[in-house]
Amino acid sequence: MRKPENISDVIRHGLCNRCGSCVGLSGGKIVFEDRTGKYLPVIRETLDDETSQLVWKACSGKGFNFPDQRVSVFGNPGGHPYIGHYQNIYIGHSRDPEIRLNAASGGILSAILIWLMEKKMINGAVVLGMSETEPWMTRPFIATSKQEILQAAQSKYIISSVNEILPEMGRFKGILAFVGLPGQVQSIRLLQEIKHPFVKNIKYVFGPFYGNTLHFSSVKSFLRSFGEKDYTRISKLYFRYGEWPGNMRVEMKDGKYYELPKFHANYLIPFHILKNSLLCTDLSNEYTDISGGDAWAPAYEERGKGFSMVISRSGQGQDILNGMMEEGWLQLDPIGEKEAVEMHSHGYDLKKRGTFIRMQFRDWLGKPNPGYGYRLRGFPFSRYLMEIIIDLLFQLSGTRFARWIAERIPPKTIGKIFEKARKVWKRSTHKVKREKLQM
Fold first, then answer.
1. In this structure, are residues 328 and 115 in contact, taking their beta carbons and an 8 Å threshold?
2. DSSP H/E element including 125
3. How far apart are CA 266 and CA 239, in angstroms?
């Protein structure tokens, strides 16, 4: 397997996950120039040897050795091949109606941050919100109040680069919690391993489950479908607005708004997916203290209001959940590995099996791959065939012509078509996705 040799190699060959660490560590020599376009880091000035080595060490795009990092982070090399190292798995939600309503699912991560802050166990939390000056873009910041934490609630499905504020984290006076996607978390763990001063204040690491990320072109395309051409007229952008599962909602400065149910707005995925997210093997954010995501099962989906799968991974993560349950902050019911894998079988199949097949395809083409310290193999031929179909669909959907066609179909129509097609696809591939999935 060919591996990337330097940061330029990572960027050039589609391995950059946009975590932002290279920007945060470079002292202004690496920047993001085109945030509404490809959103790639650009090396403006030659890096000195020390900075170059540091940026390379922190880059999770080049790879992240899962077995070694389990020892470094948790002191234990063991773990489920899909779920990772963990202590307990739960289904639950925040008992605070406001927190739960404002969240993407059960409000667990927001509740944890607020509880830690009220207990004075942290002084701030690194979170992702929406920019006040450019409300169509994401903005990482350090929240220091309950109100600010709630402002950052809900998923953001466009590219974010949380770690670009690493210098601000280093300057912060007090204890921090960090919330990030797997690539961002992995980079933080690599910096913690070398005891870098920018991460010295981070005591707790949390994160959501991760399926995929979309380019900002998804928002522009969504607006064009409604006849809007100027995204700078956006006043508010939501990806999970309202009661679970929420709606994609774009509010304009003139008072108009455009809205589509979350599952219908998913039609944007094949047209605007960040291809690098298909090289990430970490669905459930395995190197956090606590991770959480939607509980995808009819028993919970039919109730509405939002339920989360919650995974405690470290001892301090479990202590937090125990304390919150004792004080009535959380409703959590334990579940087993089999149920957890079954509930997210589509995601684990995409991330753990599909990714390694895609990496194998890249090997055949002579393209570099990230190093994860392990590889899953032995998939049935039907799964390889399914992956070829998926990759072709992404390739075709990502063309300008396909996007042009999609934008000329009313969003409500294409959303309904996509949802029906998704259900047909799930039924027809149900056996393939689950064949030998349980390990």
1. no
2. strand 124-130
3. 10
Strands 41-43 and 30-32: antiparallel
H helices present in 119-245, as ranges: 146-151, 166-171, 182-193, 217-225
H-helix or E-strand containing 393? helix 381-397
Q: Are 380 and 432 in contact (CB under 8 A)?
A: yes
Alpha carbons 121 and 34: distance in angstroms, whole number: 38
Share of the chain above pLDDT 70, in %: 97
Residues 245-295: tens digit of each pLDDT: 899 999 999 999 999 999 999 999 999 999 999 999 999 999 999 999 998
**13: helix, coil or strand?**
coil
3-state secondary structure of 206: strand
Of 17, 3, 11, 9, which is closest to residue 280 (Cα–Cα)? 17
C-alpha distances in angstroms, 168 versus 24, 28, 141, 176, 188? 9, 13, 9, 11, 14
